[in-house]
Amino acid sequence: MGVENVLKRYHVDDEVILLEEELDLFTKIFLDSDDEKTFVIERVRSILEGNVNGSNIVTKQADIYVFSNGDFSEHKSNGENADFLYYKYYLEIEPTEQASKDKYVLEISHLLIELWNAGFKAVAACDFEELLPRKGGYNIDYL
Fold it and tell me: Is residue 17 part of a domain?
């Protein structure tokens, strides 16, 4: 998916942010869970009410692929110096052709909130982290 030009007001932490820049909407969410991959796929599908085809979940706004992380390390992903890059899974998410930029960002936000509420550790890496709840999961005070 190409780079999008965005000019939009966003409300983040009771502040209005005017964003005017080229924004790549590709999103990667690192996700840690002791659950099997099939359970993670079903949980994401359920949260977003999408359709599943193997490890791919499709919604109106996003194409989501769930991968086992080849760099997974239980030791490095837990403890005092935990690093999300070593979480067990990651999701690669791109907007669909018909996606609205605003609705896509809201869908990513909804997914993160519901994953956190379900007890998953999840951190988003994207160009619009400042627009996501808890800065996409980087704000450790909320994890």
Answer: no
